[in-house]
Amino acid sequence: MTGLAASSPGASRAVRFGSNVAWNLLGQVGLLALGFLLVPRLLQGLGAEGYALYGLLGILAGYLSLLSLGAQSATQKFIAEHTACGETDRVWEVLYSSAFLHTAGVLLGAAAVFLLRAPLAHDFLNISPELRQTGDWVIACGAAASVFFSWIQFAVAMLQGLQRFGLANLVTLSQNGLVLAGSVILLRLGFGLRAVALFFVLVQFTVALASLAAALRLMPPASRGPGLAALRGAARRGFAGYALTVFFTQLAWSASFQWDKAIIGYFFPLTQLTYYLIPSFLLRRFGILANSVMITAFPLLSELSGLGERGTLLRAYRQCSQLALWLIIPGFALLFVLAPQFLTLWLGGEFASRGAWPLRLLLSAYFLHLLGTMPLAASYGLGRPSSALAWQICQAAISVGAWFFLIPRLGITGAALGLLTAQALTAPPYALLVSRSLFSMGPAEYLGTIVLRPLAAGGVFVLFLWPLRGWAWAWPTLLTLAGISTVLYYAVGFRLLAAEERMTLAKLWAALRSRLPGDGAQQLRQRHGIRRNEQ
User: Fold this and answer.
1) Distance (Å, rounded) from C-alpha 77 to C-alpha 302?
2) How far apart are CA 293 and CA 38, in angstroms?
3) Which of 177, 295, 299, 324 can pair with 290 through a Cys bridge, CB separation 3.0 to 4.6 Å?
4) In terms of Cα–Cα distance, which of 117, 198, 101 is closest to 154?
């Protein structure tokens, strides 16, 4: 971990990275807490089939936002690069093109889904006759919200490109938290799913306008004035080519992680989909802990690539990959061991009996997939997304093929098993390939410097918790066991770190503390330095 703290620029970059990761984690923990508290109330108010239709709102908005053609990742990458190099005119050129891509394709897709809402609700999805009209309304609202959903992604991409992760996470927390809390309030006031769907549209619209206004105010002014409507020449082709490669990658990712829900909805009643959506919701939130590192690392890697700092780039990749594993393994191990107990306490015995093993299989699949998230970020950050596209296509093909065979036979357990099969066959080879091709890191070095120590600490976690799982049938004992196991995990992990890495952590912690409001002397020195520079 010495790479980011070896020099003054590196130390500043390390503090910025640590702060950004902290902001990301804070936002995601907030969403996880809201979901934990409010999902049971939504399920109680909507019923199993109604909750599946409620989930369809976000699924549709996410599907249609793919028609921005990869502009979100391209915007984040090129804003980070051009801002680091002081190329403010090119920042605005990126924004004009990105605004067009975030609107045109999504708008056309939304119009098509709106016109086809009746066939989708009546013929494709297994919606019960009494809820089909409500299904029409939900699909229409999901299509309408998708444009505003895409604009929020545009604003978040701008903020992340500027590495303003506190604001980016505030936007995400507002977008998701308002929908969850407002939906529960509407149900308690006696309104139904139609009102909740309309509220979903209004939240996306309001958050989109507010976040775009905030992001645009933070953009550096163009020296020649913002008058270009699109990228020109080679720069325009580079932006479009990168964005389209990312789009095909995201489309393949959507096949791997979203089409399973459509296939379940086609073969089985929507009540079955609800038993699958809940574990998927949990894993998205826990997986975002690792994605918090990846999202933060992406603009950092883009910045280092643009500046040509090869050595720091390699060290940053190694550190970020290991940090992602340190964050996710305790949560994944805890849910794997205590899946029946947790689901029973949270949602009841029926959910536990139907969802415990699908949850465990999905946990294994997501863990393998997350091994590839940092190589994926490195591929994007270094402007080489073609390998990511190949990986996503392979896993999508295996997933979809397995689902059409397994889901009709095993239901939601087959869906989870199909995803696990695809990830086991593709994610580890992809991580090894990218590490070797981009960073000259062989399999032994990758496993030894990134994977081995977090997994060893995770093994201690599981060995401690597994014999005690029979005591976790009440919230106090479950939370106590979770806390003790997590402390044990990080204590073992700290002991497994090399002395140099422990020293670097201490230096990073000291640097982060120097930025806390309580350090008045440091703030005074900073303000004095700023005034002296201004004079």
Assistant:
1) 6
2) 26
3) 324
4) 101
What six digits make up the tokens of 488?
A: 């044990």
Question: Rounded distance, CA 417 to CA 358, Å?
Answer: 8
pTM above 0.85, yes or no: no
Joined together, the tokens standing for residue 167 give 């604001």
509 burial (CB, 10 Å; 0-12 / 13-18 / 19+) is exposed
* Residue found by looking up tokens 């020099």 in the block: 7
Taking only the tens place, the pLDDT of each residue in 4-50 is 443 444 445 555 555 555 656 666 666 777 777 888 888 888 887 88
What gap in Å lies between CA 91 and CA 262, rounded to an integer? 38
Task: Kindly state the tokens that stand for 178.
Answer: 């308002």
129: helix, strand or coil = helix
DSSP 411: T
CA distance 400 to 343: 28
Assigned token pair, 170: 């505030």
- 376: exposed, middle or buried (Cβ count in 10 Å: 0-12, 13-18, 19+): buried
Instruction: Tell me how far apart the alpha carbons of residues 173 and 203 are, in angstroms, rounded to a whole number.
Output: 12
Cβ count within 10 A of residue 331: 20
For residues 500 and 17, give the distance between their C-alpha atoms in angstroms, rounded to a whole number.
19
* CA-based nearest residue to 153, from 211, 228, 233: 211
- CA-CA-CA-CA torsion for 218, 224, 225, 228, nearest 10 degrees? -100
Token pair listed for 42: 């939504």
The 3-state DSSP class for residue 417 equals helix
**Is 50 exceeded by the pLDDT of residue 81?**
yes
Token pair in block for residue 274: 């609800």
The 3-state DSSP class for residue 227 equals: coil
- Which of the pair, 185 or 378, is modelled with greater confidence? 185
Tell me the C-alpha distance between 476 and 474, whole Å. 6
Cα separation of 382 and 439, whole Å? 11
pLDDT above 60 for 279: yes
**Rounded Cα distance, 67 and 109, in Å:** 7
Q: Is the dihedral of CA 450, 452, 453, 455 positive or negative?
A: positive
Backbone angles phi, psi at 232, to 5 degrees: -120, 145
Angle at which helices 193-218 and 165-188 cross, to 10°? 160
Q: What residue has token string 């591929």?
A: 379
What residues contact residue 188 under an 8 Å CB cut-off, 6+ apart? 41, 45
Q: Answer for the pair 204, 148: CB distance below 8 angstroms, yes or no.
A: yes
What is the C-alpha separation between 352 and 336, in angstroms, rounded? 13
